[in-house]
Each structure stands twice: as C-alpha cells, then as structure tokens.
Give the backbone structure.
Amino acid sequence: MKRKHDNGFPARDAIVAFIRAQPGKIGTSEIAREFGLKNADRAELKRILRELADEGTIAKRGRKIHETAVLPPTVIADITGRDADGELLASPTEWDEEESGAAPKIRIEFPRRPQPGTTAGVGDRVLLRIEEADETEAAPYRGRVIKVIDHAKARLLGIFRRLPDGGGRLVPIDKKQAGRELNIAKADSLGAEDGDLVSVDLVRTRGYGLASAKVKERLGSLASEKAVSLIAIHAHEIPQAFSPSALRETEAAKPAMLEGREDWRDVPLVTIDPPDAKDHDDAVHAEPDPDPNNKGGYIVHVAIADVAFYVRPGSALDRDALTRGNSVYFPDRVVPMLPERISNDLCSLVPGEPRGALAVRMVIGSDGRKRSHSFHRVLMRSAAKLAYAQAQAAIDGRPDDTPGPLLDPILKPLYAAYELVKLARHERDPLDLDLPERKILLKPDGTVDRVIVPERLDAHKLIEEFMILANVAAAEMLEKKGLPLIYRVHDEPTQEKVHNLQEFLKTLDMPFAKTGALRPALFNRVLAQVKGEDYEPLVNEVVLRSQAQAEYSAENYGHFGLNLRRYAHFTSPIRRYADLVVHRALIRALGLGEGALPQEETLEHLSEIAAQISVTERRAMKAERETADRLIAHFLADKIGATFQGRISGVTRAGLFVKLDDTGADGLIPIRTLGTEYYNYDETRHALVGSRSGAMHRLGDVVDVRLVEAAPVAGALRFELLSEGTMAPRGRKRDGFRAAPDAKAHPGRSARKKDRKPGKAKSGKPKRGQSWKR
C-alpha cells in the first residue's frame, strides 16, 4: 500500500489503515502527527476526512475518529444463534442499523477452562471482550465472554385470569402479544389466583383455537398489591432482594465520625428536593467571596453523601449495587440500588444529624465562570430540608415557617450565585429542548388519580446547574490527577441524522446551514425560530430524535447536549453506580482515606463497568416507561368510545402513534383504519400522505381521536382518527414520495416491504424518553 502520494500528502488508504489500527483513539491532530503534516496541511487533511466520512468509510464520535462499524474492545451483545460449525454467534445489543447498516457478527470463543459465570448459550445477553477476526473467518469479530448479564428467557409472562372451571387464561404483558391470550388448564394452573402475575411454558400450539400454556411460577398478585410496577420488574428481571451478605454488611455499618474528615457541621448546607423524596443525597450552600480579587463573585459548596465510606470495592454491597447499576423509580415504588438503611438513613442528609459527605468548594467569578475548585471529605449537618416549591415561594415573597428564617442567610445567596452561573450557562449555550415531563399521581389503592406536568421552577434549575458544575469539577480533578474514570458522554448527531433534519426543515422553509463544527447553538437557533408557533412541539420532537443517546464510557468524547468537553456523574452515588466509582477515584486521587478506588483498577475494567451500567440504565428507563403506559391504560380502560385531543407523536409504515394532551398516553392508529385510499410513508416529512387526495397526517399534528381498545396489562391503546388530514403544499405534494401502488394494493396501507429503501431497518415505534441530559 502506498503510504504517500508524490506530492508528499498521505494516501487515503494509508489514512484509513492508520485509523483502523487505533479505533476510537485518535483525532485530526494524531493523524497529522503520524504523517508529519504541517499546520498548512490541516485544511486538506480535514477535507479528505470529510470525504471519507461522507462515503461512510470512517465515522466520528465527538472529536474522535474511527472506522465505520468498528466495535469497541468491550461490548454488550446478545447471542443470537450458531454458525455452520456450531459455534455461537452474537450481535451487539445497542446498534443503529439506519446509521451503520446490519450489525456485525461476533463468533464466541470459550477457553478450555471457562471462569465461573461465563458459560453462555443462545438467547443470553453477555459482556464480551472482542478483537477483529482474520480475513479468512466468516464473522468479522471474535469475542470472549467476560460475564453473562441475562440468561435467555424461556418463559412467557402474563396475568392469570381464572375461569369458572378452575382453569384460566393468560393475558400477555407484551404489547406485541396484546389480545393473544393463552389457555391454561386447571391441572396446569399451579393454584394461581385471579390477578396473579405468572410465568408459563408454552405446551401446545394448535392449528385452531387458543394455544395452551402451563404455569411454572407465581410471581405475585396484582389483585391485592395493586402494583402494576411488579410486571415491569419481573419482565426486565430487575433484582428486588439484596443478598444476605449485603444485608449483613448493611446492619454492621456504623455512622461516619469526624476522624479523618473536615468539620463542616457549622456550614448551613440545605437540601432542596421533590416533596415526596425519601433520600436526600445532595446539599448546597453559597456565600459571597470575600477575596477582593473576585469582587462580585461567590463561593458555592455542594456536599454529596459519602456512599463510598459504606460500600467498599469488592464487598457484597458493591456486587449487588453493580448488578442493579442504578435505582429504578416507579409511581408506586422505588427499587433502590442500595438497601434502605444506607440510602434512606446513613447516607441521607437529614436536618440536624451529622452525616459523612464528599464535598466540592467552587469559586465562581462575577462572570459566572468557575475559577477554581477543591474537594473535601467532611462531616456535615444539614440546616434544613426544603421542597422545590417551598424554596421558590420563599424567594418570591411567600415563605412558610420552614424557609422563612433561612431566606436572608441561605436562600438569597444561593439564588444570587445561581444568577451568576446562568450567565456562564447562557454563554455555553447547551441544547435547549422544551420537552415537558408528566408525573402520574396515584390514589391510596394504587390506581391513577391524575397526570400532571409539574411547573419547572428556578429552584429546579438552581440545583441542576450547581450539580452540573460539581460534575464538571469532578471530571477535571480526576483528569488532572491522571486517574481513570467513568465519563458521562453524549455524542454529537451523526451526519445522516443531521442531513435528515435538514431535509425535514426544508419542508418548513427553514434553513439549517451547517458551517464549521457542529454545536448545540445550531439546533437552538432552530428551536428559537419556532418558539410560539403551532409546529413548535413538532420541531422539538424532530430535533430530539436527531440526537444521540447519553451513555457511560471510560473513553471521553465529551457531552454534546450540555456542550461540555469533560463531564462525569458525581452527585448521586445513592442511586447511580457511576457516581460511586467517581467518588472512589476522588478519594484515591486526593488521599482522602478509606473506600478508595483500588490501585489495580484498570481502564479496561472500567470500560466493562461503563458498558454494563449503560445497559442497566436503559433497562430502568424502559421499565419505568412501560409501567407508566400500563397505569394510564388501566386509567382509560373504562373510557372506550370517548374522544380525546392529542398530537401525532410517531409516524411509521404501521400507522400513526398519538400522544393524548391530558394524560400523555400513547396509542396506535393502524394504517389500515385511516381511510379508503393508499397511504405513502414520507420519511423526510415524517408523514403519511394519501396517494389520491394528498391529505397528509404529520408528526406533531393536533388531532381528535376516539379510544376503541385498551389492553391494560400490556399498556397498549388503539385509537380511531377523527380529524381530516392537511394538504401538502401545492407543487411539492409528491416530493420524495414513492409511486402509487397498483390496483391490487390494499386501501389504507403503506409501502410494501419490497418498496423500502435498501439498507434501512424496518421502522418501529419511535424511541421515547431519549435522554441526553445530565
């Protein structure tokens, strides 16, 4: 292979070979250094890299460059089957087919003496260490199992409904199986009662009638517990019980004492949380900086519960916490990462009680920028516990008995410091999406009372900004000390997603001219243009879908959404394992005593942890979302035939998804029910368009619907559309549409499978709850 052209500039093949040899670890500077390029050559190098990216030969993760479709050294994968030689094959669990094509195959290799917990089979989810295979091998990668995360689910879950003869029916919990009940004979019911959540084995499939199943395990009663969250807990195998050894360690734990700590008990730190919070793991304080060189500046203290003091590396508590990865929050319960004696007692910063904490002292200039920071292991005593609304009401001139005495000495300095921090935030210009979050309020019997959208107060923003500052300080400190850590990262949107957004905005006659580096400000300008317009929710939704998903990584490629070069989670070790790792690293870096990150900890091991907790985070998000869907479906089940107003929240070849305005409930309008004409799926406009009339049903449209079916157990709703479609702009009605079908096409159906664009994955329901924030 020719390394350089006659003009001395590196050949494209040589550049790609260099990138392939160091996947995910290099940027433009490293490439220029490798080939001896001067500053004057950088523009030409960037041009070549852009061409290679446009061709799909390479891709970028933030400022890092890697070969397209290259897997990282450690990956979570699902074992999907066997090859012709009987070897196990796996595919990465998280893979965007639209961006990168078909997921690469990984051939599983097993050592002669496998380690405990590494024996896996088809259907299992595993953590793999991988390497590229030889060109002679069928699969492009070889992988070795580090850990089995989830074993194959051989059983179906559902709710048992008893029949008069003592047998019953299994109502599936899976949306895809909604309406497909299974028959359970009395002899196969295992004594299940009506309303029990059960797991079953499929025992017989008939050519007619219902398939049959046999109950293998009774998992709990929804009839008595009214706990819809129990379904998601078992469906996603979220651990509920702590190991006996972890509970013994919990009971043996002693409160933190002053020895080895700084005494901060006289610093009037306060906690500000939701009114129903049971644990309080962060406290804040601010005061004017007395330094004459920082006139108008403030000192901000953020104290975080010292979980690392109680949960030591390698302990039973540590193993249980890593398995869970994070706490899971349902409307009716919390499945905590740590036992309640740790999270709700010893590590909860309750007023008047001495508590161990890891604290950061940050000096803020009058321009709002952080000038310096230092970390301290302290013994503190919270001065007060406030709810967000309480703190805000006091600042707004309506204090009650608790925050009243704190207004001048504590709350006003906090808000004054926040006003400064807002200046720096405005200058940083992070992604500013307006996506209201709904909260389900339950009655005492566990059923839905109402759904609200809590008002977003300055008190919320104050805590959020101080936590972001503390997280940045933690990442900066550990980088300065040269210690490995787990970053919270958020990649910039892919070129394909940016292009799709550009094409969509053209349909609204909105320019999206990308020049130079991609920045959140570019998206914010778009969002500002639509502020107050009818299609503001539509544009916010499409911009959200153009973004990547935040994750954990031992490799730093920045946080695009927050527009930060380095960012780590430090502020919630009670509920996130990533924060606990960062606490341990800070204790080791600064010599703060017991509970430090082990000296033998490697970047490779932290990469494995990051991959695992990224999966548990997504598991929690999915379980929380499904539980909300089931609760709302229960709430609406007796309202069949009622009409509602909502917005189209998703457009696919299967039909339209509609989110109701009052409850936020999502339901499907199947495409076959839309009308008598054929509907084309216009990916660019996010719309279904009638082939004859040109009537368009588009993402974000306000529509009236009738509820025709509710499946509470599965959390599925089906609607009938009552609104007429809007007309596509004249002269552009059919831009990018597929040709109308032949006369045999079914009315109300979308493009057939063979009409889909090559290389695209089949569209499904759009992802909801994509999280890029903190």
User: Anything to note?
Assistant: The first helix runs from residue 12 to 21. The longest strand covers residues 370-381. Residues 730-747, 749-773 have pLDDT under 50 and may be disordered.
